[in-house]
Amino acid sequence: MLHITMIGCGAIGLGVLELLEQDPHLLVERVIVPPGSEEAIGQRLARRSSPPQVVTALPEDARPDLLLECAGHQALEEHVLPALEKGIACLIVSVGALSQPGLVERLEAAAERGNTRIELLPGAIGGIDALSAARVGGLDSVDYTGRKPPRAWKNTPGEQACDLEHISEATVIFQGSAREAARLYPRNANVAATLSLAGIGLDRTRVTLIADPHSEENVHQFQARGAFGGFELNLRGRPLAANPKTSALTVYSIIRALGNHAHGISI
Ligand SMILES: NC(=O)C1=CN([C@@H]2O[C@H](COP(=O)(O)OP(=O)(O)OC[C@H]3O[C@@H](n4cnc5c(N)ncnc54)[C@H](OP(=O)(O)O)[C@@H]3O)[C@@H](O)[C@H]2O)C=CC1
Ligand SMILES: O=C([O-])CC(=O)C(=O)O
């Protein structure tokens, strides 16, 4: 059985706990939450059959088999970097954090010193295997469009770009590089960052973000061109009820990745 510590217990974290109850090979034994929320989250988890321990940092002597991040960009600096140094393998979904200059190099160096690995999960998007394979032959362009209902852009700079409550047509709220998208939209542009890191980088990947009052889904589209040929993907993700910014596929992507670590066959 693999022992997992999970960072963050919000929409994704609760979804992961729910689904892992079915799998005897995987146990979330501990969750790391922000200081001040231990009691509320502890009470929420107490109803579960085997509730994880709730802490605000990884205990000094703890050595989980895997550390799973589903908290937000800040958690990489706070929890993932020190865990890698200690030799703990980490899986992350807040991939947009890697747009911060120097963080990729620091994560890589920490993993090397700890003789371990950090895995960037595909989360809400698919096709990362094909895109990163295509990169080997050379890529000319990758263009990404993220389209979500207006409620998914609340508390983002999208509020300054348009009147989210009253738009009647699909409205472009951002156009620029994936690096800029990930910085301005940390909770909505992790897919843009993932595509960039698999493809032609954060500065060359062109991103368009759209608030669309006619969409009930989080739609992720990209086109890639290169020596391999061409590739288009259009993924219509169902948002999680607990967080309209986040697609349900992100939870399933985590379950798949954890299963691949625990089971005899990985796919
Ligand atoms: N790769 C992908 O495709 C996707 C990636 N994501 C990433 O996953 C993250 C989580 O998504 P989701 O679950 O929907 O968000 P939620 O806001 O529902 O949950 C995040 C939880 O993590 C907690 N948290 C925040 N910072 C820390 C920290 N430093 N240490 C421990 N806990 C922390 C939050 O606490 P509090 O509310 O008190 O701040 C909250 O309870 C997103 O912020 C985004 O970065 C999301 C969707 C897709
Ligand atoms: O869950 C999604 O649809 C994608 C998302 O939020 C992100 O890219 O950060």
TrEMBL record:
Its EC number is 1.4.1.21. InterPro entries: Asp/hSer_DH_NAD-bd, Asp_DH, Asp_DH_prok, L-Asp_DH, NAD(P)-bd_dom_sf. The keyword Cytoplasm does not apply. NAD(+) binds at A124, N190. Residues 8-119 form the Aspartate/homoserine dehydrogenase NAD-binding domain. Signal peptide: none annotated. Residues 168-255 form the Aspartate dehydrogenase domain. It is an enzyme of class 1 (oxidoreductase). GO terms for molecular function: aspartate dehydrogenase [NAD(P)+] activity. Specifically catalyzes the NAD or NADP-dependent dehydrogenation of L-aspartate to iminoaspartate. Keywords: NAD, NADP, Oxidoreductase, Pyridine nucleotide biosynthesis. The active site is at H220. It catalyses: L-aspartate + NADP(+) + H2O = oxaloacetate + NH4(+) + NADPH + H(+); L-aspartate + NAD(+) + H2O = oxaloacetate + NH4(+) + NADH + H(+). PANTHER family: ASPARTATE DEHYDROGENASE DOMAIN-CONTAINING PROTEIN (PTHR31873:SF6), L-ASPARTATE DEHYDROGENASE-RELATED (PTHR31873). NCBIfam families: PRK13303.1-2 (NF009827), PRK13303.1-3 (NF009828). The iminoaspartate product is unstable in aqueous solution and can decompose to oxaloacetate and ammonia. Gene3D superfamilies: Dihydrodipicolinate Reductase, domain 2, NAD(P)-binding Rossmann-like Domain. Belongs to the L-aspartate dehydrogenase family. This is L-aspartate dehydrogenase. SUPFAM superfamilies: Glyceraldehyde-3-phosphate dehydrogenase-like, C-terminal domain, NAD(P)-binding Rossmann-fold domains. Pathway: Cofactor biosynthesis; NAD(+) biosynthesis; iminoaspartate from L-aspartate (dehydrogenase route): step 1/1.
